[in-house]
């Protein structure tokens, strides 16, 4: 199924099933894969989206041709609801009411339509991992049976043999396990929360194995095109990994998510290391001796040796999580206060602490550029960057954004101190050069983001800021030189 490509080939083993490996040495930054999705669908239980452009629906329209496909406007066409799908839908004994009253049938139905016009794609799709044995008779299995299988059978889209072959369960399993979360591009200016996350199915990228330390950098642009770059050098024969989970979560949290969603237990280098590369992102302070650290698992104090029950740790983490989520309009003051409280219980680099600190960086970025605020923002960015480099080495979005924030605080602080005559022009230039360097490093990573994406737009902003910064450094230096050449004249 995967065409001979110069960078990877398909391999197979017990742990990963089918997966792709580097077919030659791949250099950091190399584009390994660029792929269009064969399917975009809402999250499980999500609302129906436009069949064609995948936008959320403000008003309902139906395709003027098949009268079944739901569209965001009657003229939306030629993207995902193409002529072939339209014709296939038209041939079915269903009406649009059947679709509207059973929104969960939409995605499996669209996969089943491939039987009529794209058998090859269906075959490739059905080869992907579905973990049927793991899912059989689970809650999600029963839900799929009632909400999808039974409905499609009654509508005569499925026959007895489809039921016997568990076609719907297979389709749902494959989608749950192999899709990537993609963002709906912003079509309005209402802000970030408006965008509903979608799931995108990419047949080739789905063959990448998971590792909590990815060797690739993934990005999806506003047209849902997926780009996979090598985040680090990848030697020939090495699997090409992506990180399915959130790199900013601790070991337990990631494990739970992987088990739920992908049905496997990760054995990567980070998951096997209770210190998580020395970051201590899951470590708590011992509530008894207040000296040692508790690391998973067992949660034994490194100093007094006492072992704490797993449920106690879980409760502590859950309670903290709840309190973080409770902040509706967080302010610098209340988050800083909350951080102090956390410091009694958690290691200063615990992932929950880091999450609060990242929120703080965002708030400081919007706050008045007071010296105190800028210094604190710099301190936080440096701390976070150090950790990000350990957990996401190589080309990294979180590193790029932290560096971007760091540069802006360094530059603002330099300007402020210079204006206040806290240091002279030489020191001012030195600080601006530091900011320039940090910004250049940020841009180096941001340039792997597709142009048509929020990060790609940040890259464009960063580039123009770099130009401005360079210009002001040049001007200051030029001004200095002029002064120097003027000085001797004055003496005469
Ligand atoms: Zn549309
Ligand atoms: Zn149609
Ligand atoms: Zn792992
Ligand atoms: Zn202890």
UniProtKB/TrEMBL annotation:
Gene3D superfamilies: 1.10.220.160, 6.10.140.2220, SET domain (2.170.270.10). InterPro entries: SET_dom, SET_dom_sf, SET_SmydA-8. GO terms for molecular function: N-methyltransferase activity; protein methyltransferase activity; S-adenosylmethionine-dependent methyltransferase activity. It comes from the Eukaryota. SUPFAM superfamilies: SET domain. Residues 17-244 form the SET domain. This is Protein msta, isoform A-like Protein. It comes from Tribolium castaneum (Red flour beetle). The gene is AUGUSTUS-3.0.2_05968.
């Amino acid at each position: 199924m995967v065409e001979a490509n110069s960078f990877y080939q398909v391999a197979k083993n017990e742990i990963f099933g089918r997966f792709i490996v580097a077919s030659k040495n791949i250099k950091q930054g190399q584009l390994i894969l660029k792929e269009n999705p064969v399917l975009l669908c809402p999250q499980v239980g999500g609302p129906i989206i436009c069949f064609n452009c995948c936008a959320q629906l403000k008003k309902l329209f139906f395709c003027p041709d098949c009268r079944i496909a739901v569209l965001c406007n009657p003229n939306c066409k030629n993207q995902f609801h193409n002529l072939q799908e339209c014709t296939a839908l038209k041939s079915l004994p269903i009406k649009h009411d059947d679709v509207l009253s059973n929104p969960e049938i939409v995605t499996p139905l669209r996969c089943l339509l491939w039987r009529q016009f794209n058998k090859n794609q269906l075959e490739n799709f059905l080869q992907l991992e579905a973990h049927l044995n793991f899912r059989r008779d689970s809650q999600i299995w029963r839900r799929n049976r009632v909400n999808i299988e039974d409905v499609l059978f009654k509508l005569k889209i499925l026959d007895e043999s489809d039921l016997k072959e568990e076609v719907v369960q297979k389709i749902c399993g494959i989608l749950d396990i192999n899709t990537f979360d993609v963002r709906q591009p912003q079509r309005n200016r209402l802000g970030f929360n408006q965008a509903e996350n979608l799931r995108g199915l990419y047949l080739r990228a789905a063959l990448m194995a998971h590792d909590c330390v990815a060797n690739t950098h993934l990005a999806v642009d506003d047209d849902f095109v997926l780009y996979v770059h090598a985040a680090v050098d990848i030697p020939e024969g090495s699997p090409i990994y992506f990180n399915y989970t959130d790199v900013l979560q601790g070991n337990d949290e990631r494990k739970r998510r992987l088990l739920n969603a992908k049905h496997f237990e990760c054995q990567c280098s980070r998951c096997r290391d209770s210190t998580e590369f020395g970051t201590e992102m899951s470590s708590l302070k011992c509530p008894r001796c207040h000296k040692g650290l508790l690391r998973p698992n067992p949660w034994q104090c490194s100093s007094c040796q006492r072992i704490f029950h797993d449920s106690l740790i879980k409760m502590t983490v859950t309670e903290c999580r709840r309190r973080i989520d409770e902040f509706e309009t967080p302010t610098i003051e209340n988050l800083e206060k909350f951080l102090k409280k956390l410091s009694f219980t958690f290691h200063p680099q615990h992932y929950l602490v880091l999450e609060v600190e990242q929120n703080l960086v965002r708030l400081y970025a919007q706050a008045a550029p007071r010296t105190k605020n800028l210094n604190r923002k710099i301190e936080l960015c440096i701390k976070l960057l150090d950790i990000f480099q350990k957990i996401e080495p190589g080309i990294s979005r979180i590193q790029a954004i932290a560096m971007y924030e760091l540069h802006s605080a360094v530059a603002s602080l330099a300007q402020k101190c210079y204006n206040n005559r806290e240091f002279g022009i030489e020191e001012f230039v030195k600080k601006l050069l530091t900011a320039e360097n940090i910004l250049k490093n940020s841009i180096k990573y941001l340039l792997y983001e597709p142009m048509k994406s929020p990060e790609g737009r940040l890259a464009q902003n960063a580039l123009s800021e770099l130009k401005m910064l360079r210009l002001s450094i040049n001007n200051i230096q030029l001004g200095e030189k002029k002064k120097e050449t003027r000085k001797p004249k004055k003496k005469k």
